[in-house]
Amino acid sequence: MREHGASAVGRHGFPLINILAISGSLRAASLNSMLLRAVQRLAPSDIHIDLYRGLGALPPFNPDLEALGRPAAVAELRSRIISSHSVLIAAPEYAHGISGVIKNALDWMVCNESFVNKPVGLLNASPRASIAQAALRETLITMSARVVPAACVAVGILGSGLDEEGIARHPEISVVLLGALRALQSHRLPVRQAATDGC
């Protein structure tokens, strides 16, 4: 989605926005990935959801690789974060911790300013997974991301039997998810064209 400028608005009077959606799971049947696909379905026309599917292509974090040339998958993720207005992350909890793949992705972004002042929302497919959610929030804040409280929501789809269409059509869940999107939209900043490497 191209940058429309800070004053550009959609037909409902909201600013046009591009949100990069990242699932912290590689499972084909991941509830978090399904939740983000449902968000893409229900997003209004003034909100574009860009689903990131390259998490599994990122190499294990190793700063020495930067000296040899930034890995292509890392460069792509960095570029897509920078070119988005906001980031929306849905990640599972494993043993009271953040999933390894999402932490690996964030570690690769520490050495540049892609997340600096970037509005971020966090989705939780299981309200019981509160420890990882808090840890993820702490990591993002440490990276100077602007975590938007109203865009951090838990929706209990674990064990619900809902698929992505069912989530998007659910009268209560859809309202919560749309509210999170509108919260990110209200924190929209102009897209930066570049970020500085710091490592």
Structure, briefly:
The protein has one domain: 3-Layer(aba) Sandwich (Rossmann fold). Helix content is 35%, strand content 19%. The protein has seven helices and seven strands, in the order βαβααβββαβαβαα.
Structure write-up:
Residues 1-7 have low confidence and may be disordered. This protein has helices at 31-42, 64-67, 72-82, 100-109, 130-142, 164-169, 173-186, and strands at 17-23, 47-52, 86-90, 93-94, 97-98, 119-124, 146-154. 35% of the residues are buried. Helices cover 35% and strands 19% of the residues. It is of the alpha/beta class and 199 residues long. The chain contains seven helices and seven strands. The chain has a five-stranded parallel β-sheet, sandwiched between helices. Strands 4-5 form a two-stranded antiparallel sheet. The chain has a single domain (17-186), classed as Flavodoxin domain (Rossmann fold), CATH 3.40.50.360. α1 (31-42) links the parallel β1 (17-23) and β2 (47-52).
CATH topology, by name, is Rossmann fold
The rounded distance between the terminal residues' Cα atoms is: 29 Å
Count of discrete structural domains = 1
**Strand element count:** 7
Q: Please write the CATH class name.
A: Alpha Beta
General shape: globular
Low-pLDDT parts are 1-7
Class by helix and strand content?
alpha/beta
State the order of secondary-structure elements, H for helix, E for strand: EHEHHEEEHEHEHH
Strand content: 15-25%
Main sheet, how many strands, which sense, barrel? 5 strands, parallel
Helical segment count: 7
Strands in their spatial order, largest beta sheet: 2-1-3-6-7
Radius of gyration: 16 Å
In quaternary terms, these chains amount to: single chain
